[in-house]
Amino acid sequence: MYEEMRKSAQNQGKPTLLDDVEPDLLGRNVSKVLENLSKNTYKNSPPAKLIAVTKTVSPEVINELKPLKILDIGENRAQVALPKLPKIAPEFRLHWIGRLQTNKVKGIIDHVCMLHTLDRMALAQEVERRAGERGLVLPALVQVNIAREPQKGGMPVEEVPAFLRQMRDFPNIHVKGLMSIMPLGAPEDVLQELFRGMRTLFEHMRDEAVQNVDMQELSMGMSNDYVIAAREGATMVRIGTALYRRD
Fold first, then answer.
1. Which of the ends of the chain has fewer CB neighbours closer than 10 A, N or C?
2. Closest Cα to residue 166, out of 132, 106, 120?
3. What's the CA gap between 167 and 231, in Å, rounded?
């Protein structure tokens, strides 16, 4: 059901939100993901946090996550996310996980608990300006295109250190770590190498201790690869399909 609706929405060019997921099914899927995260930890670290990607589901489905104690949700389109907010429980924390256009910053900045996709200086400047106007300090993750896929956002690995050092001049942005999206369908050994590369970069920048940069979070891994990501050091995984599908 989930895959059929997703493909239909893509074909029509407009979002069609899944509005009917049985609570028992959602509960089983959430439990399975949490169990996998608990079994696949990095060294002595706690399990990675589950960010439930809700961009394809309705407010009614989102609210079913609250009894399961999943309160961190991920959205990627302002025109889809913002109308949902008045209809969901206020306890939910919204993570922005899609590439963000500068002209959309104004509309979302009051609602987002963390921006996962800070990927260019123009965006940093706009976020800084809008956050400053509201007296906010917005937590953010710098998106890294470690696989160098031209169709994806994120900066190359070699540009990350210089970008992070410039963040000392952005008092209304608090960089809390890094984020990456891996190639869909890549072999496990390739994914493992890419995830390890992200963890190495994360630890290098943490050790550098750049002013106004607090390397705490490494957001990587989605439904198809989150177990590998968790084993290789993710602190957050972004899961959508695996929560709503019937196996």
1. C
2. 120
3. 29
Q: State how far the Cα of 93 lies from the Cα of 114, in Å rounded to an integer.
A: 9
138-143 and 93-96 beta bridge pairing:
unpaired
Q: Three-state secondary structure along 105-128?
A: HHHHCCCEEEEEEECCHHHHHHHH
Q: pLDDT, tens digit, for every residue of 145-171? A: 999 999 889 999 999 999 999 999 999
DSSP string, 131-179: HHHHT--EEEEEEB-TT--TTS-SB-GGGHHHHHHHGGG-TTEEEEEEE
**Between residues 69 and 21, which one has the greater pLDDT?**
69
Task: Quote the percentage of the chain above a pLDDT of 70.
Answer: 94
Among 21-25, 36-40, 58-62, whose mean pLDDT is lowest? 21-25
Provide the β-strand partners of residue 72.
93
Predicted confidence (pLDDT) per residue in 166-223, tens digit: 999 999 999 999 999 999 999 999 999 999 999 999 999 999 999 989 999 999 999 9
Decide: helix, strand or coil at residue 64. helix
28: number of Cβ within 10 Å: 14
- Rounded to two decimals, what is the model's pTM? 0.91
How many residues does the structure list for the chain?
247
Q: Are 55 and 74 in contact (CB under 8 A)?
A: yes
Residue for token pair 């002209």: 103
- If you compute the radius of gyration of the chain from its CA atoms, what whole number of angstroms results? 18
